[in-house]
Design a protein that fits this description.
By secondary structure, this protein is of the alpha/beta class. The protein folds into two domains: 2-132, Rossmann fold, CATH 3.40.50; 159-438, pyruvate-formate lyase- activating enzyme, CATH 3.80.30. It has 17 helices and 14 strands. The strands form three sheets. A six-stranded parallel β-sheet has the order 2-1-3-4-5-6. The chain starts with a strand and ends in a 22-residue tail after the last helix. Mean pLDDT is 94; it is low at 475-485. It binds iron/sulfur cluster (SF4). The site of iron/sulfur cluster has 11 residues, from loops. Iron/sulfur cluster is lined by residues 168, 170-172, 175, 177-178, 218-219, 246, 270. Its cofactor is [4Fe-4S] cluster.
């Protein structure tokens, strides 16, 4: 049996651009680990390379984000025309299974662990069902990833990833986990064994990235007690790793120091905003803005690059706040921002329900617009065009070369921990990448106003596919003049 697992991708500029980076989707390795061992499996990550449209497989699993749905529908339709059976899974498929059933042979709603093996067994018996929604027993079901199938030559900076936990105990109103995933974690011996015996390392750059990996968890600090025990178990391994976790963990000085000793060199935290009203509007009370400076200094002096993500367009944002963001950041001498986006009301979130019930979704919004870089709603205090102006200005300011120089100059000497300096040096391109989404000067960044990617639009017209509209009721049909020529 020939199986392909494809993680699809479309670039925020809506141009055909690849963006290989340290963090990539690991869903292909995860799904491959749930398929029969004797299957002939190929993994594709479209962020790294194009998907070959002429290869022969029996079964194709698609993993995608909401904004890649139209593109994934095109790929699925092209494969189905050649007799290949296609499967959709993930958060979008779980939330919109009826829509997905039109474009894929089968849809997995819920977690992959119980569903992928059942689906493959049914396929082999010729008894494939339209929908698979078995409940997971627990995170102990998570099987080791097929690390040996990762091809580091496609993406020389990529690091292997592992999950220690799933879900998050917090309830930010814009987060796709809120109300859908309870927090749970894997037994530590399982995680350590997988790192020691299964993980394959990136040997590029003369070993500079060897023995380094990332935790893929949405919030590795969901249980500080678990994280503490995990760090103790990681110390003897002498590996280098990065993770994402929440602000409350950063306030625990002894835990941050322990993470540094356990090999943590990079933490990403969604700070989201430096404006208390915006934090409140997002229900993100765990972020204590008065303590930001202290947590930054603490992390760097423990040998950890702490990087923040910011989003604009929330209901607390005002022109006055957004104009002052560069000044607020300059006051935080050691800040490092590696993500800047526009808050998105993903359809399964409390934020979506709020803006939809208040009639604030923008007309003409389609799934492609839910990408974190396109305004899909009317904020309470800002005109949509103001949000976009601030977003573009901040992307250029924060992703600038002087900002990278400041990053290197201010941080390189802050710790003597092994691999600290190489982590700082590797992070420069990540900071520069903040401006990548705004590199298309004709893009408007407002839902309903930007065309789809040219190839997708042409294929959709040719194949008779309609975009999925997730805007306000009665916002009209997709208009052909949105298609590029
Ligand atoms: S803290 Fe992060 S992962 Fe947790 S609910 Fe909020 S945005 Fe989601």
């Amino acid at each position: 049996m020939r199986i392909a697992v494809i993680s699809t991708y479309t670039h925020p500029t809506r141009q055909r651009i690849k963006e290989p980076s340290i963090m990539q989707s690991s869903v292909p390795e995860l799904i491959a680990g749930l398929c029969p061992e004797d299957a002939d499996i190929e993994l594709y990550n479209e962020k790294e390379l194009d998907i070959p449209l002429d290869r022969d497989w029996d079964l194709v699993f698609f993993s995608y984000l909401h904004s890649y749905y139209e593109h994934t529908k095109v790929l699925s339709t092209l494969f189905r025309q050649r007799g290949i059976v296609t499967v959709a899974g993930g958060r979008h498929a779980s939330h919109f299974p009826d829509d997905c059933e039109q474009y894929f042979d089968a849809v997995i709603t819920g977690e992959p662990e119980p569903n992928v093996p059942t689906l493959v067994a049914d396929f082999q018996k010729g008894q494939l069902k339209k929908r698979y929604g078995l409940s997971a027993k627990g995170v102990t079901d998570i099987r080791p990833y097929r690390y040996e199938l990762i091809d580091f030559s496609h993406n020389k900076v990529r690091l292997p990833g592992i999950e220690a936990s799933r879900g998050c105990p917090f309830s930010c109103n814009f987060c796709v986990l809120t109300g859908h995933e309870r927090y749970r974690y894997r037994p530590i011996p399982q995680v350590i064994d997988e790192i020691q015996t299964r993980m394959r390392w990136n040997k590029n750059f003369f070993g500079l990235m060897d023995d380094a990996f990332v935790f893929l968890d949405n919030n590795l600090g969901g249980s500080p007690k678990y994280l503490r025990e995990l760090c103790e178990a990681l110390i003897p391994l002498k590996k280098t790793w990065g993770c994402a976790l929440t602000f409350n963990v950063l306030k625990d000085e002894s835990l941050v120091k322990l993470m540094g000793r356990a090999g943590c060199r990079y933490i990403y935290t969604g700070l989201e905003s430096l404006n208390p009203e915006s934090i409140e509007a997002m229900n993100k009370g765990q972020n204590k803005l008065s303590e930001v400076n202290a947590v930054i200094q603490r992390a760097f002096s423990s040998g950890i690059l702490l990087s923040f993500g910011l989003i604009v367009g929330s209901d607390g944002d005002t022109n006055e706040y957004l104009e002052k963001v560069p000044q607020y950041l300059a006051d935080l001498r050691y800040f490092s921002i590696t993500f800047l986006g526009i808050v998105s009301p993903y359809p399964e979130t409390p934020f979506f329900r709020e803006v939809a019930s208040e009639g604030r979704l923008l007309p003409g919004t389609i799934s492609r617009d839910y990408d974190g870089y396109t305004l899909c709603h009317r904020p309470k205090n800002l005109h949509p065009s103001e949000v976009v102006e601030h977003f573009q200005r901040l992307c250029h300011t924060l992703g600038s070369l002087p900002n990278i120089a400041r990053h290197y100059w201010s941080k390189l000497a802050m710790s003597d921990m092994p691999r600290y300096r190489s982590t700082i040096l590797f992070s420069g391109p990540e900071i520069l990448s903040i401006r990548n989404p705004v590199k298309n000067s004709s893009r408007r960044y407002i839902a309903g106003m930007d065309p789809l990617e040219a190839w997708d639009a042409q294929q959709m017209v040719r194949l008779g596919l309609e975009p999925q509209r997730i805007g306000p009721p009665g916002s009209g049909r997709f208009h052909p003049n949105r298609l590029p020529s």
